[in-house]
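Quick bug: AraC family transcriptional regulator output formatted oddly.
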Amino acid sequence: MSIIEPCQVLTAGYSFHRKPFYSNQPDGIKNYLFRLQTDGRCQARIDGKMTRIEAGDLLLFNPTEPYELDIHSELNPMGEQVVESGDYHIFFGGPWVDEWWNHHKRPNRIKVQLTEALLGLFRQLVLEQRRISNPYPEISSYYIRILCLEFDRILSEQPTATHHNYLAYQIKNYIEENASSNFKLDDVSSHVGISVSRAVHLFKETFDTSIMQYTLDVRLNMARERIIFSPMSLEQAAESSGFANYTYFHRVFRSRFGMSPKEFRMIHREQL
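Here's what came back:
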């Protein structure tokens, strides 16, 4: 794509659902859509059937594809019916996007790591769209182009399926799905049917980090987004992200982000 054509971000936002939500647009959504599941789970129509969507699932739909989303209550580890689903969503379009879309065939869903780099792109697009006065709308245009190209890079780096990395990705999915609850290494290894030592080795070999470190990363990412965008208290944001001890949460949060949760909330909400 040698010629850069315009593209436009129409809406960008973050939603955290604690009540059921349903949307069905069988004739398409009229624009392109990126939707990144950051917390909890829901269901969306993928390849003609309703499919479970979990944290780390990045969805992409073109303007003519049917779009159906269902956020409903599910049993949590305590046996309670709860609704919990958080996501970034961006509606966009334009000639550049049309050219990008037609350049390759793309799936509606891919698994991604909820890294600071990827979340930062979504967060920055949300902040740009929330500006009361925005004399530079082209900034959002460049951000969405970067996000589209990042989508292509993630697809190109998807590993070739083997039994070993399949098990490692199953472990990764289990962590992302259950990070808000208190689980042990035994639970993780039992989920994929291998020993704890084997699970620890496979995960480290595939992702170059430990199971517990990745769990901590997922929980901190969950807490960070809730601190910025949800009305929860800091204690509720920590507890709902898998931290039973607020003192411990405060310490690891400060170590990761260089400030306390309270300072983090104040600084980022001033930008909204």
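Actually, after a second look the formatting is fine. The first strand starts at residue 8 and ends at 17. Closing.
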